[in-house]
Amino acid sequence: MAKTHPEDLDWNKLGFKYHDLPYRWVDEFKDGKWQGGHLTQDSSITFNEAAEELHYGQEVFEGLKAYRRKDGGINLFRPEQNAKRMANSAKRLLMEPYPEDEFIKAVKEVVKANQDFVPPYGSGGTLYIRPFMMGMQPIVGVSPSETYQFRIYATPVGAYIKGLKPMPYEVSDYDRAAPAGTGQAKTAGNYASSLMPSLIAKKNGFADALYLDPKEHKYIDEFGGANFFGITKDGQFQTPKSDSILPSITKHSILKIAEELGLNPIETKIPIDDVDRFVEAGAMGTAAVISPVGSLTYQGKKHAFGDETKVGPITQKLYDTLFGIQVGDLEDKYNWIVKLN
Ligand code: PLP
Ligand code: COI
């Protein structure tokens, strides 16, 4: 694949796409230990045809971003949380966790090596960083690999959904994860199972699918790539409490911000039958940032949240505060930012 050059990119119109940047990180686990990683220019991976990850899906990944500040420096947002979550995902899949301090060091190395690709301040773009790990051992029976490869690539991105324009979503009849399954882990299989429901929702004219809890199909779980929130008529921030959703780093940050804004935030079960309690709603995640949800269609009935043509004031405030902290325009009260330079 041809390498991308910074002059090839229109920073204001990036979309959410892969670009083959000059450098990525690679490390290998074999003979019972990580070998010590390094940067490489090679974006290809060679597998044996029987490699564990190809057949039995022993793969976990992460997503975080690097942000260009007004002064030209670069911020990372809570990378230690991604390191921790990746270790938890790895444990759930019986994989060898990557040491958390090495993870952070490697993220920094990848961003520094590709720093010309961190989009300019004000463009709305960011550098998306994708750490991932996979079982490499050739295995025919279903059992965990004894060898792993850990990698981190990066790619400049713009908005994942449509920026701050409210979009319609459809409540899916499918599940992305099983009760007591792998919903809390960031593993490939959860995303593979979301491909068809997502395509169906898009064919039906929606931005994406929203999943219900897989046990009772009564409560809101999450989107395929983001957690859900709603703002009640009396101004409370609510987000689903569930064992089958990904513990979102954005959500945990927004819960703090919402507290500070006096929104009395709670994590609670949200019955889909009572979704009209919300006057604003949104999706939150690293890729999604805060993406307003204009309506949810459930069993053919559309539930709109306030004026679905305009982003609501609380959603806007949450976005401005979160993104303001991430790009360094607002004070970093909680020590979330790791400055690269
Ligand atoms: N839920 C799912 C299924 C996701 O893929 C993501 C994205 O990582 C999120 C939620 C949001 O998590 P975070 O805020 O840590 O990016
Ligand atoms: C992220 O937000 O980092 C994700 O992994 C979501 C993915 C659907 C792009």
Order of helices and strands: EEEHEEEHHEEEHEEEEHEEEEHE
Please estimate the helix content: 10-25%
Distance between the amino and carboxyl termini = 31 Å
Small molecules in complex: pyridoxal-5'-phosphate, 2-OXO-4-methylpentanoic acid
Low-confidence stretches: none
Helix/strand-derived category reads alpha+beta
Number of helices: 6
Rounded mean pLDDT is 97
Task: Give a description of the structure.
- Helix 2 packs across helix 3.
- It contains 6 helices and 18 strands.
- The chain starts with 23 loop residues before the first strand and ends with a strand.
- Strands 1, 2, 3, 4, 5, 6, 7, 8 and 18 form a 9-stranded antiparallel β-sheet that branches.
- The mean pLDDT is 97.
- With 341 residues, it is α+β, with helices and mostly antiparallel strands.
- Bound molecules: pyridoxal-5'-phosphate and 2-OXO-4-methylpentanoic acid.
- 2-OXO-4-methylpentanoic acid is lined by residues 63, 225, 285-287.
List key phrases describing it.
341 residues; alpha+beta; 9-stranded antiparallel β-sheet; 9-stranded mixed β-sheet; globular; binds pyridoxal-5'-phosphate; binds 2-OXO-4-methylpentanoic acid
Question: What is this structure's SSE topology?
Answer:
Layout (H helix, E strand, L loop, with lengths): L23 E7 L2 E2 L3 E3 L11 H5 L2 E3 L2 E5 L5 E4 L1 H14 L7 H14 L12 E10 L12 E10 L9 E5 L16 H16 L5 E4 L7 E4 L3 E6 L4 E4 L8 H12 L5 E3 L9 E8 L3 E10 L2 E4 L8 H14 L10 E3 L2
Parallel strand pairs: 9-10, 9-16, 13-14
Antiparallel strand pairs: 1-2, 1-3, 1-8, 4-7, 5-6, 5-7, 6-18, 7-8, 10-11, 12-13, 12-15, 15-16, 16-17
